[in-house]
Design brief:
The structure is a single chain. The chain is an alpha+beta fold. It has helices at residues 17-26, 30-43, 97-103, 127-136, 142-153, 165-171, 180-190, 203-213, 221-230, 232-236, 240-247, 251-262, 309-317, 323-356, 358-363, 373-380, 384-391, 423-435, 445-454, 461-470, 476-479, and strands spanning 47-49, 284-289, 292-297, 305-307, 395-398, 401-404, 412-414, 420-422. The chain is built from 21 helices and eight strands. Strands 3-2-5-6 form a four-stranded mixed beta sheet. Strands 1-4 form a two-stranded antiparallel ribbon. It has a two-stranded antiparallel ribbon with strand order 7-8. The termini are far apart. It comes from Nitrosomonas supralitoralis.
Length: 482
């Protein structure tokens, strides 16, 4: 094919670096913004943080300065309508042969030298650290330590061993000489570790291990073991009449056995979850003034950035020899402007939310009105994507608690009167009805639907079931008391 030259004109939307930074700052949470600002300040000598701003020392009640939340604010807002590319990274937890070879490659070369006495670190231990610490105290051979360590690395975050031992043996390098019985022996040893239930391959085995770890003097321990080992499906279905027949026990004994089983931990490793605690810094505070709820900025959460006067004076005196500083000065000014714009946009959106949800602050979730992103966007002349960024990971401090701004949005359900009821309000009503029900005659989804219909709220039984499950409330037959 003969090569040719072609001239083609296209139109393409490109974002300036300043606008890209504005969008990025807008979608960050307050803590993420704090980290980003600290990074930029270290790179740009023209910027400095005021000494009186320290996010980590904030009081539990935020400092606020009342600001206007009117939708007619003249502040500029970030406006981008094109779709954004989201890059996600996924971790592969499969124990393939290469991974295993890499992690136990030191097995053959491990020397039996004197090891230091194990030390308990000051920070909370992860599950693997906790188990490896117990292994270091065990009177076993180095080969057994390595095999147990291999099993520990194969556990999931809940403490379960989901990898089949036979498959694990096939993945191991042949030169290690590890056979199935070696893994089975190591697993039996691991299952004696703390927390009880660790190393289980399924829920039944996990519960059995925990019951076996109890003292033999615990009342009804043997009966609970029999239920878990033989009748767990019947017990889970709440067929207590059948369970009583199988065990030959009365109601009082069954209640004690049930209490013993339901207090077991189905996820023994979850307490060692290494995820850091999530600290929330509210961006908005809500106060009542002259009978009206008003949104204010939490000023203590906004970084106080200044231009470094020392370097600014250098620019004035040596303009030609400080070209690098000139570029950094421009970036510093844009950053300060973008932070101010971010705060202004958050306040405007929060102001309209509070204006629309006045009844929520007075009466709670049952008074939540339907609200969608489009309604806020049209009111403030913003794009829905901008409102979505503003309401993600931004929090509001209210007398009723701290809520993410997205909490105040929800779909609507039509009522007989032609109005609309928020899905959040319906969930609150369902929760209230269930809390007030007779535990011996719990309300079915169909009954709840009929009760709401009598109040003028038409909700299908399927929708009731969906809302109930979202509240993590079990079905009526599982809520029935013995």
């Amino acid at each position: 094919m003969k090569p040719t030259l072609q001239l083609k004109l296209t139109q393409q939307l490109k974002l300036t670096p300043q606008l890209q930074q504005s969008i990025r700052l807008l979608q960050l949470s307050t803590l993420e913004l704090n980290q980003e600002i600290e990074r930029i300040v270290q790179e740009n000598p023209l910027l400095e943080l005021r000494d009186d701003w320290n996010l980590s020392e904030m009081d539990s009640t935020p400092e606020v300065i009342e600001s206007s939340s009117s939708a007619d604010s003249d502040s500029d807002s970030v406006e981008v309508s094109e779709s954004e590319a989201v890059i996600t990274s996924e971790e592969n937890f499969e124990h393939d042969a290469e991974w295993l070879k890499e992690n136990i490659s030191s097995y053959n070369t491990f020397e039996d030298d004197d090891r230091e006495s194990p030390q308990i670190p000051d920070k909370p231990l992860s599950l693997r650290e906790h188990l490896n610490f117990q292994t270091s105290l065990s009177q076993i051979s180095e080969r057994e330590r390595k095999i147990i360590g291999l099993l520990i690395d194969s556990l999931d975050d809940d403490g379960y061993l989901l990898q089949d031992l036979g498959e694990l043996v096939e993945l191991l390098p042949v030169e290690l000489g590890i056979e199935l019985q070696d893994l089975e022996g190591a697993l039996m040893y691991l299952q004696q570790y703390d927390p009880p239930g660790v190393g289980a391959r399924n829920l039944k085995e996990c519960l059995v291990l925990q019951l076996q770890a109890l003292s033999g003097e615990v009342t009804y321990r043997a009966q609970a073991l029999k239920i878990v080992q033989e009748y767990l499906e019947i017990f889970a279905a709440h067929d207590f009449g059948q369970v009583k027949k199988l065990l030959g026990c009365d109601d009082q004994a069954l209640r004690a056995i049930r209490k013993l089983i339901i207090h077991l931990n189905p996820k023994p490793g979850i307490q060692f979850n290494s995820q850091s605690e999530r600290y929330i810094v509210p961006d908005i505070t809500v106060v009542k003034k002259n009978g009206v709820w008003i949104a204010n900025l939490n000023m203590s959460a906004i970084p106080r950035l200044n231009i470094n006067h020392l370097y600014a004076n250098i620019l004035k005196q040596e303009h030609h020899s400080a070209r690098g500083l000139i570029s950094q000065l421009t970036e510093a000014k844009w950053l300060i402007k973008n932070i101010q714009q971010r705060s202004s946009t958050i306040l405007r959106v929060a102001g309209v939310i509070v204006e629309r949800q006045q009844q929520f602050f007075e009466h709670g979730e049952v008074a939540m009105r339907p609200l969608v992103l489009r309604e806020i966007a049209e009111t403030l002349n913003l794009h829905e994507s901008t409102v979505s960024r503003v309401t993600t990971q931004k929090f509001m401090y209210t007398p009723r608690g701290i809520f993410e701004l997205k909490f105040f949005f929800g779909s609507h359900v039509s009522t007989d009167s032609g109005g609309a009821c928020s899905a959040t309000a319906i969930r609150a009503l369902i929760k209230q009805l269930i809390q007030e029900e007779n535990s011996k005659k719990p309300l079915s989804d169909n009954k709840i639907s009929n009760i709401l219909e009598q109040q003028g709220i038409v909700v299908a039984r399927r929708t009731i079931a969906k809302y109930r499950e979202s509240l993590q409330i079990p079905a009526a037959n599982h809520r029935k008391s013995i």
